[in-house]
Design brief:
Blueprint: E1 18-24, H1 33-41, E2 46-52, H2 62-68, E3 76-77, H3 79-84, H4 94-101, E4 104-110, H5 112-120, H6 126-133, E5 140-144, H7 148-152, H8 154-165, E6 168-171, E7 174-177, E8 183-187, H9 191-201, E9 222-223
Parallel strand pairs: 1-2, 1-4, 2-3, 4-5, 5-6
Antiparallel strand pairs: 6-9, 7-8
Bound molecules: flavin mononucleotide (FMN).
């Protein structure tokens, strides 16, 4: 199990803990970030940290997400934190520490912009620096979320192919009425299916059964 670096508020007490790093970008599907975090924390022995781009944080309240999960040390890492935690040679470098901490990386939602940067190897913020620093061995899942015409643009298929060649497993988007009013392909895979994927793939059990209809139910579709 990787050793969390100094910037982290919480060290895993169990050697079996699964460290899930949720990366969110400037898609409207970032509104689901708090739900994804909450559900992942319902799994036994699962710790979560979040890294978000500036546009992503328009879609959820990072302060509330941290406050709601204070006891388990969830933090939403932002671009500013990269430099706030580094002062001189020998200090930990945040995007490297986060990469060391992560057992599994979920890029959910993945915007067209971040997908293009990932495919091209650009790294001009905390999130993309982290993407660039990932080792080939770290399991990586990417969930595109964008307008239908952005999704159908030829760039998207070539960028997704490049991501797959870099070892990313791509979660197929859904077809539905999108937040922008268009109807069609491009919505992020249902957040419950994303959590189910983590549970099934990495052997996590839910600590307790929810008594509402928020339980993951829908089948998931994944492609490599
Ligand atoms: C209200 C709103 C919703 C957006 N939704 C999406 C989206 O679902 N998918 C997407 O790829 N871009 C979307 N964008 C555009 C991105 O936010 C923009 O391309 C941004 O540069 C992405 O930056 P990031 O990849 O660094 O997060 C949206 C923009 C706005 C203003």
């Amino acid at each position: 199990m990787p050793n969390p670096g100094r910037p982290f508020p919480l060290r895993s007490s169990s050697p079996d803990a699964l460290h899930v790093l949720l990366l969110t970008t400037g898609s409207v599907a970032s509104v689901k970030a708090p739900l994804i975090v909450q559900e992942l924390l319902n799994y036994e022995n699962t710790l979560v940290q979040v890294v978000s781009t500036k546009p992503s944080m328009h879609f959820f309240d990072a302060g509330k997400l941290e406050a709601d999960n204070l006891a388990v040390g969830v933090k939403v890492w932002k671009d500013e934190d990269e430099w706030a935690t580094w002062d001189r040679m020998g200090d930990p470098v945040l995007h490297i520490e986060l990469r060391r901490w992560a057992d599994v990386v979920l890029l959910a939602p993945c915007s067209a912009n971040t997908l293009a940067k990932l495919a091209a190897g650009l790294c001009d913020n905390l999130l993309t620096s982290l993407l660039r620093a990932l080792t080939p061995e770290t399991p990586k899942h990417l969930f595109p979320a964008m307008n239908t015409y952005m999704y159908l643009h030829p760039h998207t298929s070539s960028h997704l192919l490049a991501a797959q060649e870099l070892g990313w497993e791509v979660g197929e988007p859904a077809s539905k009425a999108l937040a922008c009013g268009d109807v069609g392909m491009g919505a992020m895979m249902d957040w419950r299916d994303i959590c189910l994927l983590v549970a099934e793939r990495y052997g996590r059990r839910r600590r307790y059964i929810a008594c509402n209809n928020e339980m993951p139910l829908a089948p998931m579709r994944m492609s490599r």
